Amino acid sequence: MTAHRLSLSIAAAALVLATSATSYADESFETEPTLDAAAIVQPALLSAPNATVASQATVHGYMARFSLDTPFGPLAAESVELLAIRQAEIPAIETLERASRTAAFAHAFGEKFRKTGKSIWQVVSHPIGTVTGLPAGVARYFRKQVERWSGRAQSVSDRAAREFGADGDPFRTPQAPMSATRAPPPGTAAPKPDKPWYGSVGKEIGREAKRQLNYNTMRRQMARHLGVDPSSSNPLLRERLDALAWAAVVGNVSAGAALDAVGGTAAEVMSVGNRLNALVWELDEENLRERNRQRLSRWCSDEFALRQFLRRGGFNDSLRTALADELDALKPARGCNDLIEIGAGTRSELEARYLVNALRLMRREAAHGGELFVVGAALAWRSNDGRLLLPLPLDWLSWTSDMSEFFTAPQFRVEDKTVLVSGEASTAAQRALAARGWHMHLRSPYPGAPDYADDLSQGLPQAAPVPAQPLCLGDVAETAACL
Question: Is the separation of the CB atoms in 74 and 90 below 8 Å?
């Protein structure tokens, strides 16, 4: 090719890019909608016993938010997936509520439990205060921890803190679809600020007290018996599971008596246990963390980032185990270090589930031998033949200005690229992505994917019909005026 032709080709390519950029800049953006709940999920999720789901759900951060009313108190579900999980946990809450009233636990909720529980709560809430009433071993452990922690600054000076600062935090850029949920929805309060450094002392002392009293073992046994996640963030479930486990260990109720009082079996309740690795019931917190460290080390070479991931962020032990399961199945050649650094920067269970479900979407579509890479705080997969997969485990993809900017990332400038959306996408989003050369798969299935309704578009507010254009008939002058 001559220099002249090369110059013409470059000029033509620049013209195409400029034209595309102009057309993208002129595109209109959407606000996230409010949808009919019955049009988003299957009827079974709206008709579970002892739970009433509000008739509408607000989409925020591309996830549908539901409100549930139960006899035990209100519940919120921040996605279709979490709605299914919350519904499945209600039978366990009912069982624990009944068990708390049985004679087997009557004496355990007496004065001795209240005093011991108060002492432990006091040290967890105010770790610089008294340790009176705690077992001697816990008291000694507490004093050592105070010495170890009291010299620490409030902000931890490590690499993750630097990289996740205001300038480098991938969650604070439009290149992170899941981080859109961090901004509080309209009319809601802003998130609470982080706890001071001594809050970590309280957590450590609480863990040590529970370990010595065999509390965690009892709690995991009860969770397994009910078929629920011991790390569940459901406040109604956690409150009852915590109380019954404390009552059992402090009141000297044997494990057998405790489980008999709980009643039922995992097979008799609507269990979510089929999505859990049995390790979350079998191993205590430290052993499970070590097991996950060993498993993740197969794919991640950065030991520092791995330690941060195992103790920081929005992941609980069950979700860390799920992430390790997915990496074992996916076998990425590269990219694990970036993944766990992103994982350490998550702030909520919803963000952690986004990453796990993104891996699940990849595993179903990707061939082995490729690699993970991150765009902002989102995950993508590049196969050995150059094919790009972008998993978006979202309930409803609206075409917002942030989403538009996300898709301008230079990593997406390839020809063969597919976006996998677990839920639905608006017409505007589908058109915009098609114009950018993306193949789109909606309702992309993966193990444990939410049960969406057959047609989510039925729940959208209906736009006013566009009036028909009049026919331009007449002479030349009349036709020109009409046009």
Answer: no
Pairing of strands 63-70, 73-77: antiparallel
Length of the chain in terms of residues written: 483
Q: State pLDDT tens for residues 193-226.
A: 544 433 444 555 556 566 656 778 888 888 888 8
* Residue (of 482, 214, 169, 207) closest to 342 by Cα position: 169
Q: Is 146 exposed, middle or buried (0-12, 13-18, 19+ CB in 10 A)?
A: middle
The tokens for 355 are 């990453």
Sheet holding 388-392, edge to edge: 371-375, 378-382, 388-392, 417-421, 439-441
Q: What is the 3-state secondary structure (H, E, C) of the chain?
A: CCHHHHHHHHHHHHHHHHHHHHHHHHCCCCCCCEEEHHHCECHHHHCCCCCEECCEEEEECCEEEEEEEECCEEEEECCHHHHHHHHHHHHHHHHHHHHCCCHHHCHHHCHHHHHHHHHHHHHHHCCCCCCCCCCHHHHHHHHHHHHHHCCCCCCCCCHHHHHCCCCCCHHHCCCCHHHHHHCCCCCCCCCCCCCCCHHHHHHHHHHHHHHHCCHHHHHHHHHHHHCCCCCCCCHHHHHHHHHHHHHHHHCCCCHHHHHHHHCCCCCCCCCCHHHCCCHHHHCCHHHHHHHHHHHHCCCCCCHHHHHHHHHCCCCCHHHHHHHHHHHHHHCCCCCHHHHHHHHHCCCCHHHHHHHHHHHHHHHHHCCCCCEEEEECCEEEEECCCCCEEEEECCCEECCCHHHHHHCCCHHHCCCCEEEEECCEECHHHHHHHHHCCCEEECCCCCCCCCCECCCHHHHCCCCCCCCCCCCCCCCHHHHHHHC
Q: CA dist 412 to 335, 338, 382, 390, 399, Å?
A: 17, 18, 11, 9, 17
The mean pLDDT of 178-195, rounded to a whole number, is 62
Given this model, what pLDDT does residue 120 score?
A: 52
The rounded distance, in Å, linking the Cα atoms of 13 and 18 is 9
Torsion of the alpha carbons at 424, 428, 432 and 438, rounded to the nearest 10: 20
Average pLDDT in the 28-52 region?
A: 87
- Predicted TM-score (pTM) of this structure: 0.76
Mean of the pLDDT values across residues 24-31? 79
Q: What is the pLDDT of residues 449-483, one digit of tens each?
A: 888 887 655 555 544 444 555 555 555 555 455 55
Question: Residue 419 — φ and ψ, nearest 5°?
Answer: -105, 130
Residue 302 CB neighbour total at 10 angstroms: 16
Q: Are 380 and 374 in contact (CB under 8 A)?
A: yes
